[in-house]
Amino acid sequence: MRSYLLILGEREAVAWVLRHQRMAFPARRRAEAGRLESGDELLIYTTRGCWHNPGRDMSRIIGRAYVTSPVKPLEAPVEVAGRTFESGCRIDVRTLTPYLTGVELAPLVENLAVFPVKSSWSIRLRRPLLELPDGDAEMLRGHLAEMEASADEVVDGYLQAIKPVAGQGTAPGE
What we know:
Blueprint: E1 3-8, H1 11-20, E2 22-25, H2 30-33, E3 41-46, E4 60-67, E5 72-80, E6 83-96, E7 103-104, E8 129-132, H3 134-145, E9 149-150, H4 151-161
Parallel strand pairs: 1-3
Antiparallel strand pairs: 1-8, 2-6, 3-4, 4-6, 4-7, 5-6, 6-9
């Protein structure tokens, strides 16, 4: 089992992922996503701009999911927040933190091996997935355990709070 940050930069993408228990990837990211295997862990990460208020919101890990199917081309492309996605996989979202909470990533960067250049760590997050070294995944899991609850208990709060915004933002994997 490998662990990844699953990077979501748009709230509508968060709602789509939670509602459908799937992850979708744009065509240009197919090779990167193709490395995912059933059982891989996804620490769900939302960017600072995900909620459309980067002055208030921080980049956070908001939950944990596991890949349950291989990544393959979709029968029909999916459109989320004005972006088209051509491949995807099923996931099982098991835990979430309450809406607009989670583990802030920035204070932990100094202790994470996945970010070798600390001054430009956020550049590594401009992709749908970032594979984590085992030690990093273990540390992040430990911080998340203090805040997470069963996704079934929390998911409705996300879905009720996230309202579609026409023509703005990015979608799963961007």
